[in-house]
Structure formats: structure tokens, C-alpha cells
Design goal:
Radius of gyration: 18 Å
CATH class of the largest domain: Alpha Beta
Largest sheet: 9 strands, mixed
Number of strands: 13
Low-confidence stretches: none
Distance between the termini: 21 Å
Order of helices and strands: EHEHEHEEEHEEHEEHEHEEH
Number of helices: 8
CATH topology of the largest domain: Rossmann fold
Structural class: alpha/beta
CATH superfamily of the largest domain: HAD superfamily/HAD-like
CATH architecture of the largest domain: 3-Layer(aba) Sandwich
Helix content: 25-40%
Strand order of the largest sheet: 1-13-12-11-2-3-4-5-6
Strand content: 15-25%
Amino acid sequence: MEVLNPEIDLDKYFKNLYNAEKSALLLDYDGTLAPFKVERDKAYPYPGITRILDDLLKSDKCRVVIISGRRVKDLILLLNLKKMPEIWGSHGWERLTPDNRYEVFEINERFIQGLARVDNWVTKEGLQERCEKKPACLALHWRDLEPADVKNIRDKALRHWPAICSDSGLKIHEFNGGVELRAPGRDKGFVVKKIISEIGNSIVSYIGDDITDEDAFRALGADGLGVFVSEKLRPTVADLWLKPPEELLDFLKMWATSL
């Protein structure tokens, strides 16, 4: 566990959490709560994570929220919790509310047409098995491929997708293990800002690992705690670096104990 921001005092942070009337723990999934898996439907949480989350979800002082690029329905199956937390999936384009209502937000017809063009391109290139379709997003995954094959797929996508983006307004985003086309207007930072606006003055922490989580770290502002989870440190605006799973488990236990 390494503090990256010299202005952060962890002892003071957890003391404030102990005294706070309300708090929010915001969590990415893949690479954060669970290890990356080539078979994405088998990327279950690290041992011990489910038990801690079940404990955290019992607290009236803590709002637990999963914020992920995955679809909500996939996360429900993988988490296997006694009580489902609030979940924002597809980078904020769909949501499972705290009272278990499912919402998918309206997508501009221009974006829908652009995603359909990309879907046709994926089929033409024979990349269906690499393709993940989500509300307002389409991703290509290549985590299990050799570097030469990764380069081939990436080069193809980045050669053909910009023209579609120009016509449709979609945006290209690279992530750990793939590349994605996504409708603009929502990302993990958008979700963090919305949650902060809803809960007002409280203790907030966001835990994530990917480039897509940097938007969330920045959205926290000066009062939030950004926690980067990875075996290796990379440039990040996060305040704290944890190595999974041991340091992550320790941090979550500290959070639960403080509540």
C-alpha cells in the first residue's frame, strides 16, 4: 500500500470515515474486485471480496456502488451477493438502482446507427467472438492473443473506425485488453459526479485499475480518495496504490471496520 498523494493522511481519512454520517464506496470490477480472465464469464471476485461486500452492504452509513464497463446483467451473475448493490454498467449507460430497478438510458439514433455499422464491420472481419455488445458501446477484446495478432486487430480497428466516428459522433477508447467504440456523454466520471451530487457532503472513495477509471479519479475532486489497484504502478491521478488481492482486501477491511 503506497500513498501517491503527499497531501493524503490515511489515518485521518479513516477517522473521518468513522465519524461520518454517510459515505460512498465506488468500485470498478474487472482488474479491481476480480482478476482478468480470458473467459470473461468466469471472472469471479478474489477470495474474500464477496464476504466483505456483503458486510458493507449491511451498513446504513455506506452507499456501495459498482461502476463498470460490463453489462449490468453480467455483473449480477459474477458478484453473487446476498444483496445486490447499486450497479452502473456500460460506462454509465445502464443502471441497477438501490431498490433493484433496471434502467437503460436513451441513446441518440445517430449513435445507434454508428454502432450498427461497426457491428457489420465486425462480422465482415470475422471478429464476432472478440466482440462485446453493450448499450451505447461495442468492444473488441484481445487479452489472450499473441502480440502480432493484437497489433493486427488493433490496427484494423483504428484504421476503419475513425470514419464511422466522424459520421456518427462515437468515440474510440482503448482499455486494458481491448478497444471500444462508445457513445459520448457518459463515462465513469459522469457516474461519480452524479453520485456525489446526490449524497452531498460525505466521505467518498473510488477504487479502479484501468485507464477508463482515470475519469472517475478526476471526478472525485479534492475531497475524495482515488485508489489505484494493480501489480505495477503506472501514471495515474489516484491518491493511493494497492496491489491485489491482499492490499485491496486490507483496504476494504479498514473501510468496513471504520463503519
